[in-house]
């Protein structure tokens, strides 16, 4: 086995040529592998590949292993190991460059001990934060400790280390959860009143944040095509109602990027960049599937967006569906999210309000929803949090219906809006019974089918759901079996009879007993091919 030497049972030494040292002597990379010959061969090939990669990047793998600087670079660049957002990468680099690498960067990772880490943490505890004038917090030092732990765990998986020294630190920095501040109902109402005196862009941004809990980057990443409206069913106290619903979709977020990051040839692919927006802004995919979501908003949010759109049109900019919503005052470019933070801070100061951050607006929204009785799991889903559990992993129409209840609570508690009643139309029932979607209004048909099935129905699967609901209606209402015989013949004259028969049922006050399907599996198995 080339470059591999067996030292003892289950212990192999790998030696790779690494050029020459400054004194002219030959340099070698030496590493031990504990396991089988196959493990040693696999590790040798990995080392050769990494050696080639580092040579191409102008780095050299020194004898005895990589330095912490080299290891950290490989760790951050390895997107196959772990997918990280641009925000996370930027935060990691700040911790590394400001605190970790100046003290430990030139030391080979195999030589770093838990005592070295303890000395670093003690030094940080005695360092004054120039922004606050106070010592660095335990939480901040804990972030460094967690990053160091992750880097060494990565090295262990690569078999560059046998153990992680961070795991043996006697007094690791403790994470202290800071209680975030927020605005209560009265304070939010004061903000809404003050916003009336501000420009439409700022008013739209802040009003939306308070009513959605969006992250700043998510708000900046909104395009006009992300705002839609449709009729959706809702049942309250046993009464089925339809209301026009406004939905905002989160599909991207704006992020600031440095020139250094953009110089990476794999920049777009590595960080899931959707598009370059400006020289310093990119649109990226949300970090996880849980961050991609649709939420229902109150009418007032939709209205303020439409007012902002009218402002843009009146001032010479005709936005398309693919345009970003928030733009500079001159309307010639995308509004940088950092300016939302600056304008909010100025708004707080000018109106002598309790100081909270833009992110605390998100916390205010969550606190308000919990205060009016919205279940925590629905609040978490609405905010795009990663927990709780599996119900938050897929954003389905059933989530939107639950969101409808959230908005109903909000509309009732804040804006005192009424929800109109809508009755099921006879032609809608006829359309289902004869499998002909052209006999009724699309909105009525889709609303009825979605109310019955609790599913989000597209035109592609419309026929299957019509068959499913037809069977359910006939099973639940034996008095309609006679019409089923006519349906099967699909004769134009019989259609007229069916129409007259259904009208006769309603005219004679024959009640159709319809409730949402409790066990939909039976009907899906028979009508939908997976």
CATH superfamily of the largest domain: Intergrase catalytic core
Helix share, percent: 40-55%
Strand content: 5-15%
Gap between N and C termini, in Å? 51 Å
Radius of gyration: 31 Å
Average predicted confidence as pLDDT:
80
SS-based structural class?
A: mainly alpha
Q: List SSEs in N-to-C order.
A: EEEHHHHHHHHEEEHHEEEHHHHHHHHHHH
Helical run tally:
21
CATH architecture of the largest domain: Orthogonal Bundle
What's the shape? globular
CATH top-level class of the largest domain: Mainly Alpha
Sheet with most strands:
3 strands, antiparallel
Oligomer: single chain
Strand order of the largest sheet: 1-2-3
Name the poorly predicted regions.
389-399, 506-511
Number of domain modules: 4
The total strand number stands at 9
- The CATH topology assignment of the largest domain is hpI Integrase, Chain A
What does it look like?
It is a single chain. The chain is mainly alpha-helical and 530 residues long. It folds into four domains: 1-64, no CATH class; 71-178, Tyrosine recombinase, N-terminal domain (DNA polymerase, domain 1); 197-251 and 286-415, Intergrase catalytic core (hpI Integrase, Chain A), CATH 1.10.443.10; 426-527, no CATH class. 48% of the residues lie in helices and 12% in strands. The chain has helices spanning 37-56, 68-77, 86-104, 114-125, 138-157, 185-195, 200-212, 216-220, 259-262, 267-270, 299-314, 337-350, 358-371, 376-383, 397-415, 426-433, 442-453, 462-476, 481-489, 492-507, 521-527; strands at 4-8, 11-20, 26-34, 227-236, 239-250, 253-256, 273-276, 281-284, 293-297. Strands 1-2-3 form a three-stranded antiparallel sheet, covered by helices on one side. Strands 4-5-9 form a three-stranded antiparallel sheet. Helix 2 runs antiparallel to helix 3 and helix 7 crosses helix 13. The longest helix is centred in the first third of the chain and has 20 residues, at 37-56. It starts with a strand and ends with a helix.
